[in-house]
Amino acid sequence: MKEIKEIVRAFDVACKNKKRTALATVVHVEGSAYRRAGARMLVTEAGQLTGAISGGCLEGDALRKALLVMSQQKPMLVTYGTSDEDDAKLGVGLGCNGIIHILIEPVDPANNNNPITFFIQLLQKREVSVIVNLFSLENRTASQPGTCLLLNNTETKLNSNLNPGLHKLILEDAERALKNKTSELKIYDYEGNTFTAFIELMRPSVSLNIIGAGNDVNPLVQMAAVLGWEI
After folding, report:
1. What pTM value is reported for the model?
2. Shortest CA distance to 41 belongs to which of 150, 184, 27?
3. How far apart are the C-alpha atoms of 114 and 15, rounded to whole Å?
4. Which residues in 133-157 are b (16+ Cβ under 10 Å) and which e?
5. Could you report the per-residue pLDDT of 47-78, keeping only the tens digit for each?
6. How far is it between the farthest Cα atoms of the chain?
7. CA separation for the pair 41, 25 (Å, rounded)
8. In this predicted model, which residue has the larger pLDDT, 189 or 83?
9. pLDDT digits (tens, 9 = 90+) for 30-42
10. What is the DSSP pairing of strand 184-190 with strand 193-202?
């Protein structure tokens, strides 16, 4: 959740400076990778990066892809394969034996249900919630819906022009994930199209109440802050 907080702060600064942004999310990993599904990075058109999607190997190429996404205002699914000669092609030396799928989507401040507004609600409500990223692994050139649903015990927010039938299926699976307190990957074959959904369970950060003001309080606060806890 610490990374989410930093992304929200960076987005706020970018909006004040009237800079366009894009959000990169690791939505699926096959094999080994430095970061797992759910890792995120905010990119501004000025090239500022907040968060991380790898150990520093993919960020440069993802930045170039994110600038294209901002220009076209269209989500993109990028796949990095690191199990063959792709390391040499990319020139990044990933050192992992896996495949990483990253969804990059523009963030529109005018859209009240953009991904960052979902994050703000996560931080404010401090409830266990579910966020759904929808994409097409079958056809990376197809339309990529992106971050489409936020669900918790008090509210459901939708950010997509999804077909009502598909939305119903995704909502049912999101409700089950919230009930079971688990994340999962689901595949939907709907009206001739195949979509994959990364249904991610999001837990609020740990809340730490400190009573007293002894000498041990300052280092305790510093350690908790590094962990992203609510102090």
Report:
1. 0.88
2. 27
3. 13
4. bbbbbeeeeeebbbbbbbbbeeeeb
5. 999 999 988 888 999 999 999 999 999 999 99
6. 65
7. 7
8. 189
9. 987 888 999 999 9
10. antiparallel
How far is it, in rounded angstroms, from Cα 161 to Cα 124? 26
| Residue among 47, 144, 34 nearest 80 (CA) | 34
Nearest to 62 by CA among 30, 104, 99, 1: 104
pLDDT at site 82: 62
How many other β-carbons are positioned within 10 Å of the β-carbon of residue 215?
6
User: What is the secondary structure of 25-57 as a DSSP string?
Assistant: EEEEEEE--SS-TT-EEEEETT--EEE-SSSSS
Q: Which residue has the higher pLDDT, 94 or 76?
A: 76
- CB distance 35 to 53 below 8 Å: yes
One-letter identity of residue 75: P
128 to each of 1, 125, 182, 201, 220, how far by Cα in Å? Answer: 12, 9, 11, 7, 26
- State the average pLDDT over residues 10-31: 96
Alpha-carbon distance 129 to 179, whole Å?
A: 10
